[in-house]
Amino acid sequence: MVDTAVVDKAVAGDHACLTFSDAEERLDLLAGFVRDGLRTGQKVVCWTDSVDPQALADQLAARSVRPGAALRRGQLRIATAGQSLLASRAGAAGMVEVLAGELERAGREGYPGLRVTADMCWAIRPLAAADDLLGFETKVADLFADGRLCLICQYDRDRFDAVTLAFAAKTHPKTIAAQVYHDHPLLRICRQYSPPGVRMAGELDYRHRDILEQALAESRRLDRHMHLNLTGLDFIDATCAAVIVSTASTLPASRRMTVTCRRLVGTMLDLVGTVGVPQLRVRRAREHDQA
């Protein structure tokens, strides 16, 4: 049976599958995984395919991960799958050897463990052998025996077929997902991991007040500073806007809530009373901005 876990519970010895259709949510989960690895003194390797290494480093930095120093001291490495994972040109066995080499190198360098995240979109490139993906996911299991490796394989639901996604789910003992408070075609509310807080997308009104209060209460309990990513929110009514402002007003003076949102959502927050709430910071994002 496959276990489902949130990204901040990923531990050494885990071989997990992250399937996604929301690119922003995927980057948030990835940032949380990298951040936690760096904080706990592990070595972290990111093999990327759909995003180039510099762009990925920029995305991590935008999500409260500080990749610069970690990259310079060698604790973090970001590289394309083609330059690293596929460099041996020896198929699945060669890819497993590359990963085994990274694990051995991390040990020699004094790191207690190795965290790896791999964008598996390399497998749908024209030159990729059809059985390389299947072979890699099957053969890699032996590397988890000593409990030092944590590997998350990322699968884009929009780019992989249903058969491959089913195989990925079957071969990974664990599935990584965001904690979701509400998931509906018109509204999604889930936990954001880096920076920590809550992400909302869709249309939020009085009917969802209880769910909103639940999500905010958990963030208030877990996070020193609360970050509300509302860039995907198209509409908010006065009731829910008031809940957000009221929650911010109850924070101690040493804590703050940062809300990133579109102009119309920010206007509604202002209308219900952001003035006079020093713990609340509202940042207007342009349509293409990412929080």
Number of domains as seen in the coordinates:
2
Query: DSSP helix count?
Result: 9
Structural class: alpha/beta
- CATH hierarchy: architecture of the largest domain: 3-Layer(aba) Sandwich
At the third CATH level, what is the topology name of the largest domain? Rossmann fold
Shape: elongated
Average the pLDDT over all residues and give the rounded result: 91
Unreliable stretches covering 5 or more consecutive residues: none
Q: Output the radius of gyration.
A: 20 Å
Strand content: 25-35%
Element order: H for helix, E for strand: EEHEHHEHEHEHEEEEHEHEHE
Q: What does this entry look like structurally?
A:
Strands 1-7-2-6-5-3-4 form a 7-stranded parallel beta sheet, with helices on both faces. A 6-stranded mixed beta sheet has the order 8-9-10-11-12-13, sandwiched between helices. By secondary structure, the chain is an alpha/beta fold. The longest helix is centred in the middle third of the chain and has 18 residues, at 91-108. The protein is elongated, with a radius of gyration of 20 Å. It has 9 helices and 13 strands.
